[in-house]
Amino acid sequence: MDRKELERINLTPIEDLIAEDFGAENTPERNQFEMECDAFIIGEQLKEERLRAGLTQEQLAAKIGTKKSFISRVEKGRADIQLSTLVRLFTGLGRQVSVRVL
């Protein structure tokens, strides 16, 4: 639905709600929010792929040479990881990582 249609049925566009709560685009607050969203999404993707592979966090950690607690933090979006670590995580699950610059 476009903005006019949303307004006609008395709904607020999600973009407006996000700006209201987390700041306008390209502000420090909004950038922080978007980085946290990206970390959450990566964590969810990791968890989904790990479960699809039939591995526990402990098994994945052993496979790539890290600790279970690290896998847990990544899956919860609470770890600031390097690209090389991200590649190791997903390669350990038989997946590839592709990076796009927007």
Specify the biggest β-sheet: none
Q: If you consult CATH, what is the topology?
A: 434 Repressor (Amino-terminal Domain)
**In sequence order, what are the helices and strands, one letter per element?**
HHHHHH
Range of helix content: 55-70%
Fourth-tier CATH superfamily name: lambda repressor-like DNA-binding domains
Tell me the total number of β-strands. 0
Q: Unreliable segments (pLDDT under 50, ≥5 consecutive)?
A: none
Over all CA atoms, what is the radius of gyration? 18 Å
Question: How would the global form be characterised?
Answer: elongated
Q: Tally the helices.
A: 6
Q: Concise description?
A:
The chain has 102 residues and is mainly α.
Give a verbal description of the structure.
The model has no long low-confidence stretch (mean pLDDT 94). This protein has a single domain, classed as lambda repressor-like DNA-binding domains (434 Repressor (Amino-terminal Domain), Orthogonal Bundle). It contains 6 helices and no strands. α4 crosses α5 (68-75). The protein is an all-alpha fold and 102 residues long. The chain has helices at residues 3-8, 14-22, 28-52, 57-64, 68-75, 83-91.
Mind sketching the topology for me?
Layout: H1 3-8, H2 14-22, H3 28-52, H4 57-64, H5 68-75, H6 83-91
Helix pairs in contact: 4-5
